[in-house]
Amino acid sequence: MRLYHAATSPFVRKVMVLLHEARALDRVTLVPASGTPLDPGTLPVDRNPLGKIPALERPDGPTLYDSRVITRYLDDRLGAGLYPPAPRLWDTLVLEATADGMADAAVLMRYEEHVRPAASRSPDWSEAQWHKIDRALSAVEGRWISHLHGPLDMGQIALGCLLGYLDFRQPARDWRAARPALAAWWQAAADRPAFRATAPAA
Ligand SMILES: N[C@@H](CCC(=O)N[C@@H](CS)C(=O)NCC(=O)O)C(=O)O
Asked: Does this model's pTM top 0.85?
């Protein structure tokens, strides 16, 4: 299998953490890819018409894309056990969707602040993306802490990837301030070898 990869992407990191946890890194060749909506660069637009990574070339069918599709596929193929049976599955999927939604907002902020030409940037629009993240982090602090302390699943992994991305790209925003339980969870979880080996780097 070939994974289109960038070390800064929170979505690619989800796939990499899964591969580490499943001890299956040797099953995938990493293909460096980078670009933006304004300049797709080496993003695999011929493999994913949306021009986004991660994308996974596989031997048994067309290229897969969207991190949630790839992680479901690899979990099934590798028997990683990171999607539990229902009914816990529904919580895992909602947590993963919440974390991915925050990552979408954080990536849009990054594009707004660093890719869009300076003259047409909108601080209000960026701030509106941050509000989504802020609201969702408070929802996690309010209702997801007991799930976070259960068995490792893709919801927790997606959340860790998002929190790592916030520390990497938005260090001035103190997301920990009013969220002591979430901060404590991430401090411990970030020490897992799979998270340590995949921390974002410029
Ligand atoms: N929903 C997608 C989001 C992937 C995504 O936004 N990837 C970013 C990198 S972090 C990207 O490829 N951006 C290029 C673009 O938007 O043109 C997923 O879960 O895979």
From this structure: yes
